[in-house]
Amino acid sequence: METQYHIPALLRESIEGLALKPGGIYVDATFGGGGHSRAILAQLQGGRLYSFDQDEEVLKNLPEDKRLQFVHGNFRFLSNFMRYYGVEKFDGLLADLGVSFHHFDQAGRGFSFRFDADLDMRMNQRATRTAADILADYSKEELCRVFRVYGEFRQAAKMADVLIKARQEQDIRTVGRLVDLLRPLLSRQTEKKDLARAFQALRIELNQEVRALEDLLTQALDLLKPGGRLVVISYHSLEDRLVKNFMKTGNLEAEVKKDFYGNNLSPFILVNNKVLVPSAEEQEKNPRSRSARLRIAEKRQ
C-alpha cells in the first residue's frame, strides 16, 4: 500500500539553499509530490510560487494556496510560461530531477524492471511516443549511444545488437521481454543495478531529459534576479556534471571565461564548492536518496 507519493531528498538543504525571501518569487521546476513546494510556501509571506510538472497525476497533490500557480507543462519551456504569467525575473529556482518514487512503484507506467507492463516510460502521458517505440525504431548505432551515454554500459554495442536481432522476430513492447533479453548480458552480482541503468537510459532518451535540463539551466540564468539562487538535485552523473559545469562557467560548453586579470567571468558564485549528498541518517531512512547530489549557485550582483 502506497503511503507517500515521493519523499524529497535533501529537503532541508535545498530549501536553505534557496535563501528564501518572504515576499519573493520562486519556481519549483519539478512539483511531483509537492514536498519542495509546500516547504517553500511555508516560508513565504505574500510571495509567489510557480510549480511545474508535465504529469497529470500530480494534480491530486496540489495544495489549495493562492500563492501557488501550478504550471502543467515541461520546465524546458520556463521562459514562455514566465512571460505568459507576466514574470520578468524571479528570486530562485529549485529543480529535483529524475522520477518520483510513485512512478517507479506504479507498475503500469513501465519505469521499473520490477513489474511486467507495457514499456511506456512517458513522463508526459499526453505524448504519443513510448520507450517501446525507441526499441522498435532506433538503429543499432542509436541504441548503442543510448545505453553507452545514458546507461554508461561498456557492452552497449552488444546490448544494441541483441535487441535489434530480437525485434526482427517479435516486437519488444513489454518490461518482461526486455528484461529477458538483457539479463544474459549482465553480471549476476550487479543484475538489478544494471537493469536499473538500462531502464534509466531509455527513460532519459524518451523524455529528452538532458536537453530539457540544458534548456532549463540557460533560461534560469536569464530569469534569475541578481543575487537569486539556482538549486538543483540530480541523480545521474551526466546530469550532475552538466549542472556542475554550468554553475562553474555559466555556459553549456563548460568554457571558463576570464578577464584580463585572470578572474573568472562566470555569472554565478558557487554557494557549495563541494557537492552536497544525503547524510548517512537520511540514506538509512530513505535508501532511494543515496544517488542524490545537490548543487547551489547564486547569480552575481
Structural description of this entry:
The chain is an alpha/beta fold and 301 residues long. It has 2 domains: 11-100 and 210-299, Vaccinia Virus protein VP39 (Rossmann fold, 3-Layer(aba) Sandwich); 125-206, Putative methyltransferase TM0872, insert domain (DNA polymerase, domain 1), CATH 1.10.150.170. Helix content is 39%, strand content 14%. It contains 12 helices and 7 strands. It has a 7-stranded mixed sheet with strand order 3-2-1-4-5-7-6, with helices on both faces. Strand 1 (25-28), helix 2 and strand 2 form a beta-alpha-beta unit. The longest helix is centred in the middle third of the chain and has 16 residues, at 191-206. The protein is globular, with a radius of gyration of 20 Å. The relative contact order is 0.14.
- Name the CATH superfamily classification of the largest domain: Vaccinia Virus protein VP39
Share of residues in helices: 25-40%
Q: How many discrete domains?
A: 2
Oligomeric state of the chains in view: single chain
Q: If you consult CATH, what is the topology of the largest domain?
A: Rossmann fold
Tally the helices: 12
User: If classified by CATH, what would the architecture of the largest domain be?
Assistant: 3-Layer(aba) Sandwich
Largest sheet: 7 strands, mixed
Overall average residue pLDDT: 93
Q: Distance between the terminal alpha carbons, to the nearest Å?
A: 49 Å
Q: What proportion of the residues form beta strands (DSSP E)?
A: 5-15%
* Radius of gyration, CA atoms, in whole angstroms: 20 Å
SSE order in H/E notation? Answer: HEHEEHEHHHHHHHEHEHE
Shape category: globular
Structural class: alpha/beta
Counting DSSP E segments of at least 2 residues, the number of strands comes to: 7
